[in-house]
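Q: Convert this sequence to structure tokens.
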Amino acid sequence: MSLLGLDVGTTGCKAIAFDAEGHRLASAYREYPTAHPRPGWAELDSEAVWGHIRSVIAEAASQTAADPIGALCISSMGEAMTPVSADRRILGPSILCSDTRGVEYADSLRAGMGAEAFYAINPNILNAAYSMPKLAWLRDHEPALYGSAHRFLLWSDLVGFMLGAEPMTSYSHANRTLLFDIHAECWSDELLRRCGIAREKLPETVPSGTVAGHVSRRIAAELGLPDGVAVVVGGHDQCCNALGAGVIEPGMAVCGIGTFECYAPTFCMPDDPLVMLRNGLNIEHHVVPDLYVTFAYNQSGSLVRWFRDTFAAEGGRGSRRADVYDLLTAEMPDEPTRLLVLPYFEPTGPPDYVSDAAGVVLGLTPTTTRGDILKAIMECATLYFVDLMETLRRLGLGVHEFTATGGGARSDAWLQIKADVFGIPFVRPRETESGALGAAMLAGMATGVFAGPSEAVAACVRRSRTFEPDPDRHARYADKAAAYARLYPAVRDVLADPRR
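A:
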């Protein structure tokens, strides 16, 4: 049988069917817009997105008649929840993490409980991006919707529920709500009480890889699926991405390069988890048992796209039929640049959480080329994470190898920059859509195709190329990292925007 991995993101969803050796059999993709009904609001039309998800499942199923789908699993964004009825109707939109509603509820929890006491239960950095502040806002501002909802489901849970499975969520997703006890691996009575959220409004928490049920006969017939397709609980997209990249041991990390660039180092639970809080880092369950991840991210992919649209709107030099990114990276110099770029064009993620700055390109001269600027963006978006890697090393959680995934992983030049900056090898796998592959691997593990994570990785994950660091360039980047570290403190007061 084949295995279907679904990946539901903020801007699009994909379905990819794999055989038991990780080869693609079929794939489908749909995009959808973000709605902004009021300033500061950001929502997805959950009914419309569910329609797109149905479409990609049906398209993939239509291409797998020779190897029918036997199980499916969902990797998805975190935080955003959708209200549903007991009879599996979607009752409203899902509020995205970028939505500003609910700040007061995160602030109130912090003030009433204290950051350390909260982190000891749910190890996240308290802010309004997570699910709880949105749920509390709905409870107080849309009480009819809140009261009528049978459950509020995260996207992985929602897809499974709409297909016919039980309302279950993975530990990795439950952690994104701010209501989960990471040590007891269940909803926290104390956090539910403090936040005023009803436990019965939430799904059951289970380990990733749990069979939540099967696709209903009606839905299977509508989507062209065989009878009895197992629905397996997946996980937060970055955790599924790590499994699909073969990152299943401490000391390994996945680097997902898309609109956001997200680093997810893998480790065992620290003896003193509060050391992570003191360094601005969260802790979350991996989809692999007994392992955990932390996240650090910035908008480096968005920056590269901004550069393309601003400096190469008509395409790069040469044939317009060629890929513009290939043309632009061909213009980059071989050696490290002298330019410094502060990649704070948008608010940053952990560990810095800078929301009141702006971007900087420092060191321009009349001889500066657009290739210099592009390479400097790639260099400094990577230098942003140097302190994080040093912090992890100091905490005994150092990384010895990265695996790069996502669209940016196709860039040889960018991966070589990253290897040279960190002095650590970067691996590009054969399948860079590792979130969907990781979900498919979980489906196989749950249904007996694979005995466990190691067997699934051995069967499905292949290395395409390893980028080894150059010692001379690494030394030069160490000097550049020291200069980069001085840039933001030097310009912080100038860039601060009191209106943000």
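The first strand starts at residue 2 and ends at 8.
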